[in-house]
Design goal:
- 25% of the residues lie in helices and 40% in strands.
- With 144 residues, it is of the alpha+beta class.
- It has a single domain, classed as Hotdog Thioesterase (Thiol Ester Dehydrase, Chain A), CATH 3.10.129.
- Strands 1, 2, 3, 4, 5, 6 and 7 form a seven-stranded mixed β-sheet that branches.
- The radius of gyration is 16 Å and the shape is elongated.
């Protein structure tokens, strides 16, 4: 099994009291927000946010999933790791891992990201600069 050190981008997030639900643990919907925070950090690092502002070509979330391994509780701190594990002509897959300071690995997830032209509302090839930046972060990447 992968560890948090296997992920190219990591963000630290403190668990907030308000994230817990009536069952006394962090609500499962929050895990998807944690994935989103890591995903946006990844996009920022590879220049995708700037690219989207400039060219109107950017990422769109096509699907996402999670496997919940252990519950999270307040107080705690987590690290959320993400990486690209598969790169195609106009889409890529991202993996996630949430690591709790108190409990270890608490969830893993996956997302399919499609590159989208927001002006024409069509799929678009991954811009060359973005592809290059992903590959520089992910030297062992499977490319198709």
């Amino acid at each position: 099994m992968l560890t948090i050190d296997d992920y190219s981008v990591k963000v630290s997030i403190p668990i907030e009291w308000g994230a817990m639900d009536s069952f006394g643990h962090v609500n499962n919907t929050k895990f998807f927000r944690y994935f989103e925070t890591a995903r946006i950090e990844y996009f920022t690092r590879i220049g995708f946010i700037e690219e989207m502002e400039r060219s109107k070509v950017g990422p769109i979330l096509a699907s996402t999933s999670a496997k919940f391994i252990k519950p999270l509780f307040y107080p705690d701190n987590i690290q959320v790791g993400t990486r690209v594990n598969n790169l195609n002509s106009n889409k890529f897959t991202m993996d996630y891992l949430i690591y709790s300071d108190k409990s270890g690995t608490v969830a893993i997830g996956e997302a399919l990201i499609v590159v989208f032209n927001y002006e024409s509302s069509t799929k678009s090839p991954i811009p060359p600069k973005i592809r290059k930046n992903i590959i520089s972060l992910e030297p062992d990447l499977n490319q198709k």
